[in-house]
Amino acid sequence: MAGVKREREGAVGILTLDEPASLNAMTPDLLGDLAAAIAELTADPDLRALVLTGAGRGFCSGQNLKAFDSLGDDIAAGVMRLYWPTFNALRTCRVPVVVAVNGVAAGGGFSLAMSGDMIVSARSATFIQVFSRIGLVPDLGSTWLLPRLIGRQRALEMMLFNQPLPAEKAKEWGIVHEVFEDADLRGGALALAQKLAAGPTRALVATRRLLEQSDIATYAEQFQREITVQAALRGSADALEGRAAFVEKRPAKFTGR
After folding, report:
1. In whole angstroms, how far apart are CA 207 and each of 83, 126, 134, 195?
2. What is the mean pLDDT of residues 206-212?
3. What are the residues facing 98 on neighbouring strands?
4. What is the mean pLDDT of the segment spanning 206-220?
5. Would you list the DSSP string of 199-253?
6. 121 vs 105: CA distance, rounded Å
């Protein structure tokens, strides 16, 4: 059945956008199922990381223009009601999220990829904004996410000229963490997610949150916020284990608690 495929590999959940005929173009139904899948998997306390990828020849080709009618007369309200919860679920997920981009990530599909924590890609993958090509502005978080990854000038270059960015260039610019041969993408993404899952995931997610808050904080405010979060984590099982492992000169065994 079309929608989002759910899988588990130990402590890692794998979510696959599974509408390859449309290159996994976004619809309210597809994004609603993705939000439901994130909620289902992360409800398990033993889940420690997620991988998000796409079936077929592309990760996500952007918004399915045929689905606009389902957004209602007020498109902005429809997008906030039907799309925002999914993007926010990825951005605020309680575990690290690795996005494995196979093929194209275009327009809103590019935004979806950037909503995770780390992007890896197949060598054949491409990233493109496309919006100005159809007389529109970037949306679904692109103007917030992309400049924070690659800076204002490069973000403008991608958004104004709509040139596809190949995987190797995306890595050079800081969008992609690692590029794999196409056949190795799933294994590479899973290995990275397993590495994150073996870490102190509460602290990793708190680090993500601190980085995002730093954009609107003064130095003094962020200094105080870091210490506040640090104090809250010091008594956690992972922090106690980390300190014990350091003293005992052994690898730490984190549990995400």
Report:
1. 25, 29, 37, 16
2. 95
3. 51, 118
4. 94
5. S-HHHHHHHHHHHHHGGG--HHHHHHHHHHHHHHHTTSHHHHHHHHHHHHTS---
6. 10
The residues, ordered by sequence, that sit 6+ positions from 138 with a Cβ below 8 Å of its Cβ are 107, 111, 129, 131, 146, 159
Cα 180 to Cα 8, 120, 123, distances in angstroms: 21, 8, 6
Instruction: List strand residue ranges (DSSP E) for 46-204, in order.
Output: 49-54, 97-101, 104-106, 118-122, 126-128, 165-166, 178-180
- Spans of all domains in the chain: 4-197, 201-248
Give the tens place of pLDDT for each residue, 157-208: 999 999 999 999 999 999 999 999 999 999 999 999 999 999 999 999 999 9
Q: Is 182 exposed, middle or buried (0-12, 13-18, 19+ CB in 10 A)?
A: middle
pTM, 2 dp: 0.95
* SS3 call for 170: helix
Calculate ∠ Cα 116-119-121, nearest 5°: 140
- In this prediction, residues 78-97 reach a mean pLDDT of 96
Least confident segment among 18-27, 66-75, 79-88, 116-125: 66-75
Q: Which CATH fold would you assign to the domain 4-197?
A: 2-enoyl-CoA Hydratase; Chain A, domain 1 (3.90.226)
How buried is 86 (Cβ within 10 angstroms: 0-12 exposed, 13-18 middle, 19+ buried)?
A: buried
Q: Are 175 and 165 in contact (CB under 8 A)?
A: yes
DSSP tag of 63? B
Taking Cα atoms as reference points, which of 57, 25, 27 lies closest to residue 130? Answer: 25
pLDDT digits (tens, 9 = 90+) for 140-149: 999 999 999 9
